Automatic annotation (TrEMBL):
Transmembrane segments: none annotated. This is IPT/TIG domain-containing protein. InterPro entries: Ig-like_fold, Ig_E-set, IPT_dom, MetalloPept_cat_dom_sf. It comes from Rufibacter roseus. It comes from the Bacteria. Gene3D superfamilies: Collagenase (Catalytic Domain), Immunoglobulins. Residues 209-305 form the IPT/TIG domain.
Length: 712
């Protein structure tokens, strides 16, 4: 879906859920019309289910908003004060109710939850509410707990249905289910005005616009690309006129308008406008015909469709104090983990579910090896117990009650921003968290989803695309296409939309430091993939014939073609020494051996490079083998300030080291932590002059002296 959010210093935040997946489902019983509007990774809740689950059902309008941190300073929530017009269910007769929604903005910190209700000021409709502490409420089903009114058309919509009449469809349906009529608390003047006779405009002079042509016919959204529209009767100035594009978030069932600052120019015969991913009423511009509405207002529709090949997510910001009009900005990815990008950590139940874990990692590799986004994982780390703003990018199965009803999964994106020199606005992604429902109808792969299953890898790939800062498209062959259906498998990025979009984001995210925040470092093309399934390599030196035997086993080998055995003498620079063809399959593994007949005499390091049928490589852990000439020593010697300690131990230990000159004067003391399985340690010696030094060392088991000649 789109990413659109407005930050206001004095006004309430206008927020919108993003990182969503719109589920294209069959017609649901009791729905006369199904619209895929903002259905962000959710399954339909019938109107009957919503009525039955709600303690209070009201018609109302959002009159004020205030965002706040929770007590632990982990998540931002928003308090929405709603003026009540009518009560459809419940004994209470409140003038105002307080509805708490997840996400919001505090200063320049912003949390956005996908598949989750996010309201805006002056929005009105029907709220299906459940009680919370301190006389507050939450919307049952979150996004599905609100039927939004579309005034002045007199229509309404929820994520899965369009209502042609508020009074005749919405009111009557709820009355039928509750068995009673509503109670009026306050007059809804905007709704009542729709029933009044309309002004007769038949004799007014009106101009009907016509679109003659437009260019380009293929364009990008959210990057500043300008669409030029040529025609007649647009009006000499824009006035209340506007351009509107198909909304990619609902597959084009509705239209979205650009921000006022997106209009470059407007004359009677030509309009220049930027194609947005953050429309004035939310949404992302998608492929399809577009419309021009002039000030009269009259409408012209393009004769041919506009194609939007990719859409980059934007943040919108407005600051009345600084005189900054509402405008869109592209957020950057950063070097959050100090290793070039972001590290994902897993919840205990997610990491224990190996098929889910492997599907997630395959999806990561699909992005990283096509756009080189720097994502890695921390396996077997401390489990992520909850989702919080804690600089941990968590991936977990949500526990009961954490996700809104019927939500398959969601992403939480956390942003921070800064303003340089009063006008230069910047935003970056500080953290991203993913939550998924623990369902029985997931197909984790590597087999394809079928029947009523949802393909987990396809869902993850799409969600990670939002984490990559890409928005929805109306392009069925693209991963960022707005919809995914049961049994639909979409595990490969589109080379004409998804990949170019990701590369654009990377080009902006790796090119400069902003606000002292380090930019992302792109992954190298020859080492882009993380290891999906652990590859346990064992290596053993055989002194009888001076060989090293390497052995490994696999659980499954989906698409694996071969294993390349690589060797190094320093643990850094590896060289291939042999290849073993893969003999397993997608559902079964195999056992392998390889013999190195010419191992290095001191130390050798071995690893496996697993190659798949797409030419991508994954690496095993490195195994160290000591040769027959291995001794405890410093090398190189003579050397400079840096050398290496060669030392073998069977237990974790400490080596206490003291550096003396030949006169017996001590220059420094330091400790080296030694571990089993590691026999080579880099040492940085004190910054002293050239000459001979004695380095005394001792452990819990032995001791000795090195004579070291420093020549640099």
């Amino acid at each position: 879906m789109k990413q659109r959010f407005t930050l206001l210093r004095l006004l309430p935040a206008r927020l919108r859920a993003f990182f969503c997946i719109t589920l294209t489902l069959g017609v649901i019983a009791s729905y006369t019309a199904v619209a895929q509007h903002s259905t962000c990774s959710i399954l339909p809740l019938s109107l009957e289910e919503r009525v039955q689950a709600s303690q209070l059902i009201v018609e109302g309008k959002v009159i004020s908003q205030q965002s706040f941190w929770d007590e632990r300073h982990e998540n931002i929530y928003t308090s929405n004060k709603v003026e009540v017009y009518k009560v459809f269910k419940g004994n209470a007769t409140p003038e105002v109710v307080e509805i708490i929604t997840e996400g919001g903005r505090v200063d320049l910190d912003l949390h956005i939850y996908s598949a989750t209700l996010s309201l805006k000021s002056q929005q009105q409709g029907i709220f299906f509410l459940q009680p919370m502490p301190n006389r507050t409420y939450k919307a049952f089903g979150s996004l599905q707990g609100f039927i939004e009114y579309q005034l002045p058309q007199g229509t309404a919509r929820d994520p899965f249905r369009q209502y042609s009449s508020i009074q005749q469809e919405v009111y009557s349906s709820i009355r039928r289910l509750t068995g009673s009529t509503y109670r009026t608390i306050n007059h809804n003047l905007a709704l009542e005005a729709l029933a009044k006779p309309k002004e007769n405009t038949q004799n007014l002079r009106r101009q009907f616009p016509l679109i003659a042509s437009f260019s380009p016919s293929t364009i990008r959204a959210g990057v500043g690309d300008v669409l030029t529209i040529v025609g007649t009767n647009f009006g000499n100035t824009r006035g209340k006129g506007y351009v509107e594009f198909k909304n990619a978030d609902d597959g084009g069932d509705s239209y979205i308008q650009p921000l006022p600052t997106d209009y470059v120019s407007w004359t009677n015969t030509e309009i220049k406008v930027k194609v947005p991913t953050s429309g004035i009423d939310h949404g992302t511009a998608g492929s399809g015909v577009f419309r021009v509405v002039n000030n009269d207002p009259n409408t012209a529709t393009s004769a041919t469709p506009l194609t939007i090949i990719y859409a980059v997510s934007n943040v919108t910001y407005k600051d009345d104090d600084r005189g900054l009009a509402e405008q869109s900005y592209i957020p950057r990815l950063i070097n959050q983990n100090g290793q070039g990008g972001y590290t994902f950590r897993f919840g205990a139940s997610f990491e224990a579910n190996k098929p889910a874990l492997y599907a997630f990692k395959r999806s990561m590799n699909e992005w990283s090896c096509n756009t080189f986004i720097n994502w890695v994982t921390a396996d077997n780390a401390t489990a992520v117990a909850r989702t919080a703003d804690d600089k941990i990018n968590g991936v977990r199965f949500a526990t009961s009650g954490e996700l809104p009803a019927n939500v398959l999964g969601r992403c939480i994106s956390r942003y921070s921003g800064c303003i340089v020199d009063g006008t230069n606005v910047n935003f970056w992604v500080t953290e991203m968290d993913l939550e998924f429902a623990a369902r029985t109808d997931w197909q984790y792969g590597p087999g394809s989803a079928s029947g009523q299953q949802f393909d987990f890898e396809s869902v993850v790939l799409h969600e990670l695309g939002h984490g990559h800062q890409l928005s929805h498209l109306i392009l069925p062959r693209a991963v960022m296409h707005y919809g995914v259906a049961r049994a639909q498998v979409s595990r490969d990025l589109s080379p004409t939309s998804d990949i170019p979009g990701g590369l654009f984001v990377m080009s902006r995210s790796t090119n400069q430091t902003i606000c002292r925040i380090a930019p992302m470092v792109a992954k190298p093309e020859d080492n882009c993939a993380i290891t999906v399934q652990p590859l346990a390599l064992e290596a053993e030196y055989h002194p009888a014939d001076n060989t090293v035997l390497l052995e490994w086993e696999t659980q499954s080998e989906d698409g694996v073609t071969e294993y390349v055995v690589e060797r190094s003498q320093n643990g850094v620079n590896f060289t291939p020494i042999g290849t073993v063809p893969a003999t397993g399959s997608a559902t079964s593994g195999s056992s392998y051996q390889f013999v190195d007949t010419n191992p290095p005499p001191v130390l050798a390091y071995y690893r496996l490079r697993k190659v798949n049928n797409r030419g991508r490589s994954e690496y095993s852990e490195v195994e160290e083998v000591r040769g027959p000439e291995f001794v405890t020593q410093l090398a190189p010697n003579p050397g400079g300030n840096t050398t290496f300690l060669y030392y073998s131990t069977t237990v974790s230990d400490r080596l206490y080291m003291d550096v003396y000159d030949p006169t017996g004067r001590i220059h420094s003391s330091f400790v080296v932590l030694v571990e089993p399985g590691t026999s080579r340690y880099e040492l940085t010696l004190p910054n002293v002059g050239r000459g001979l030094y004695l380095i005394r060392w001792r452990s819990s088991r032995d001791s000795g002296v090195f004579r070291y000649l420093k020549v640099e």
